[in-house]
Amino acid sequence: xxxxxxxxxxxxxxxxxxxxxxxxxxxxxxxxxxxxxxxxxxxxxxxxxxxxxxxxxxxxxxxxxxxxxxxxxxxxxxxxxxxxxxxxxxxxxxxxxxxxxxxxxxxxxxxxxxxxxxxxxxxxxxxxxxxxxxxxxxxxxxxxxxxxxxxxxxxxxxxxxxxxxxxxxxxxxxxxxxxxxxxxxxxxxxxxxxxxx
Length: 197
Known about the structure:
Elements: H1 2-5, H2 39-50, E1 58-65, H3 81-84, H4 108-111, H5 114-120, E2 123-127, E3 136-142, E4 147-152, H6 165-180, H7 182-196
Parallel strand pairs: 1-2
Antiparallel strand pairs: 1-3, 3-4
Helix pairs in contact: 6-7
């Protein structure tokens, strides 16, 4: 059975550290509402954004990473939500309602906007097997000739770079405010924090 599921199997994993190591302790929280394989690229985009790099300034953006589907962003018209969830550049757009790679940013309306389509057209992505799957190497080539480089070794939300309590709270509020309302979300937040203490 094990060989059917994966070619990368280790029978020792069944009994090694049995009762001492628990896989649940290796779980982490996803900061972005998409497949985790592109979180390093989104993290890099967020870092570019924090350096005041805007879509209008970019001539091209080069991304290298291990994710084999890196070229998916080249679809100029991502008509379906799942396709939108492998787009990398909407997170650069400097608007108060965008920039978090939250669920609403992957809507058809956002993904198919003309400015987003134009921005995706500036991206050149290549697969580099020498880069760890949790990493991304991104360079924005700006219209004024400058090159802004970001290397993400461990994406935010990974085991080696976990989300802070403040980031987790912000994500919780972002997901629940529109459903529970701000007051009930704050109340639930306080109860959860109290239970954890």
